[in-house]
Specification:
The protein has 261 residues and is of the alpha+beta class. The protein folds into two domains: 47-175, Cytochrome b5-like heme/steroid binding domain (Flavocytochrome B2, Chain A, domain 1, Roll), CATH 3.10.120.10; 183-260, no CATH class. It has helices spanning 2-26, 50-53, 80-83, 100-103, 121-137, 157-182; strands at 47-48, 66-69, 72-75, 140-144, 187-191, 195-199, 215-219, 230-232, 241-242, 253-256. A hairpin with a 2-residue loop joins β2 (66-69) and β3. It starts with a helix and ends in a 5-residue tail after the last strand. 21% of the residues are buried. Keywords: Membrane, Transmembrane, Transmembrane helix. Residues 48-145 form the Cytochrome b5 heme-binding domain. Belongs to the cytochrome b5 family. MAPR subfamily. Pfam families: Cyt-b5.
């Protein structure tokens, strides 16, 4: 009678004991045996350490070819003819060399190549465009812990500043596009017998069709960054934008004198 009463409790204790042993076995980390060093592993899924990344540099015995741009990791093994050992862009694999995408330095890697802080906003924006190419062309692996992301894959303060600068460059590009729509460039042709002619149509300069023609105007003060001629809407003349010498203000075509070029 006593045994039948105690038996369920004994079975319960045995089950608990077995569960404790099983948990201890499953939770035992690889490499925890005495005398064996535990391998370095990522602290978050999709985040690589520098040591892990170095295993994908294309050297003999490596696991493949990983390229990093702005802290994002891509598998470029399918482009081995470009990124493999001895190839033109091999310097890009196994580390983050983001700055080289605009500096053109492909010879020898240095840790400073991941630092883009000395670049202009527009140059950083160019690197982002390169990143878009890799997004479309190669498999995305994850993030590199370090300058741009922490061990959990969260953006660092450095990364946030870079993104702010990219946003500023994008805003400037949009503003320039608006200015281009407001002041499109003229059509320009040169002939030896007649010289340079500029003219406006509804499809002037950059080839964009619009609903107005405009009149050719030049900048009162020249600048290498300014076009030779822009098309201005009717009544849009300003002190900065003036008719070409010897050309009627209402004309849609003008010949440009050499001194105005």
């Amino acid at each position: 009678m006593v045994l039948s009463y105690v038996a369920p409790y004994l079975r319960h204790i045995v089950v608990i004991g077995m569960a404790v042993v099983l948990f201890a076995v499953l939770s035992r980390e690889p490499g925890s045996e005495p005398g064996r060093e535990a391998p370095e592993v990522s602290t978050a899924e999709g985040v690589l350490t520098e040591r892990e990344l170095a295993q994908y540099d294309g050297t003999e015995g490596s696991k493949g070819l990983y390229l990093v741009i702005l802290g994002h990791v891509y598998d470029v093994q399918s482009g081995a003819k470009h990124y493999g050992p001895g190839e033109s862009y091999n310097m890009f694999v196994g580390h983050d060399a983001s700055r080289s995408f605009v500096s053109g330095d492909f010879e020898q890697y240095t840790p400073e190549m991941s630092d883009v802080s000395s670049l202009t906003d527009a140059e950083i924006r160019s690197i982002v465009k390169w990143k878009s190419f890799y997004d479309e062309t190669y498999p995305y692996v994850g993030k590199l812990a370090g300058r741009y992301f922490d061990a959990r894959g969260e953006p660092t303060e450095y990364s946030r500043v870079v993104q702010q600068r990219v946003a500023r460059a994008e805003a400037e590009e949009e503003a320039a596009a608006v200015r281009g729509e407001e002041l499109p460039t003229c059509n320009v042709e040169w002939k030896q017998e007649s010289g340079t002619r500029v003219w406006c149509t509804s499809r002037s300069g950059n080839g964009v069709e619009r609903g107005w023609v405009g009149r050719p105007r030049r900048y009162a003060e020249t600048s290498e960054k300014r076009p030779l001629c822009v098309c201005v809407r009717e009544g849009g003349d300003t002190e900065e934008l003036v008719p070409f010498d010897g050309c009627e203000p209402a004309s849609d075509s003008c010949f440009v004198k050499e001194e105005e070029k």
